[in-house]
Design brief:
10 strands, globular, about 20% helix, two-stranded parallel sheet, alpha/beta, L,D-transpeptidase catalytic domain-like
């Protein structure tokens, strides 16, 4: 993929001391590990504020990360998404941490939390099934376009990772059916990008991120929350690619 323009945004993380204060205040155990999926979650989209996470069937891990973001102001006054890979769910929040809505998502076919090196510069035909990973982490995100001029939300520049409306061009993938089922296990199908229902993208994601950057938190499935989010603060760089194929 050819890079014709780059715009980088950087943001610092909350201090380790702030995270420790938050942990002590809430009593949450940050070293959560994902040993497997729990009960299947409600797949229908729901709306409400952050106090409606229970009604939205958010997982314990998603609630822990959301609470941490709000308590430490890690989102820096920006809209943010929490993507739960194990339960195949996305939760969207406004800059104040109010829940805007939730939806089922489709994710990378292969389990894993780290993108293969150089994956964003390779054609889809060169990506093997075991490399089709949706990475975990904290990413600065902004709206962009795909090769067809359609809107997408860029999540990770180096991995060419984006969130976009579900792709339906390949009937054999049955992506709409996968989004509609109650089980999360069949939501692994993409090359790594996050597919969401078109209505959720149009009515929640686009309005929230239009004209601004935001943050996307993708929960791990093999690593712990502490390892991915709660250790020494770092900086995630973000850059815009003008166009890329949908995955």
């Amino acid at each position: 993929m050819t890079i014709s323009a780059r715009t980088r945004f950087t943001a610092g993380r909350s201090s380790r001391r702030a995270v420790r204060r938050w942990a002590m205040a809430t009593g949450l155990t940050l070293g959560l590990a994902f040993a497997g999926a729990g009960q299947a979650e409600e797949r229908a989209r729901s709306t409400g504020d952050d106090r409606g996470l229970a009604e939205a069937n958010a997982s314990v891990a998603a609630r822990a990360v959301t609470a941490w973001v709000i308590e430490t102001a890690d989102n820096q006054g920006l809209p943010f998404l929490v993507i739960d890979k194990i339960h195949a769910q996305v939760l969207a929040f406004d800059p104040d941490g109010q829940l805007l809505g939730t939806a089922s998502v489709l994710l990378g076919l292969a389990p894993g939390d780290i993108s293969p090196p150089g994956i964003g510069d390779r054609p889809l035909s060169a990506i093997t099934p075991e490399e089709r990973i949706t990475p975990a982490g904290r990413f600065m995100a902004s709206m962009g376009e795909n090769l067809g001029g359609k809107g997408i939300l860029w999540i990770d520049y180096d991995a060419a990772l984006s969130l976009h409306p579900v792709i339906t061009t390949r009937a054999a993938d049955r992506r709409l059916h996968r989004l509609a089922t109650a089980a999360a296990e069949d939501n692994r199908i993409s090359y790594g990008c996050v597919n969401v229902p078109a209505t959720f993208y149009d009515e929640v994601v686009q309005p929230a991120f239009n004209g601004t950057t935001g943050i996307v938190y993708i929960l791990p499935e093999l690593r712990s929350l502490e390892e991915v989010f709660f250790q020494e603060p770092g900086v995630n760089a973000f850059a815009v690619r003008p166009a890329a194929p949908l995955r």
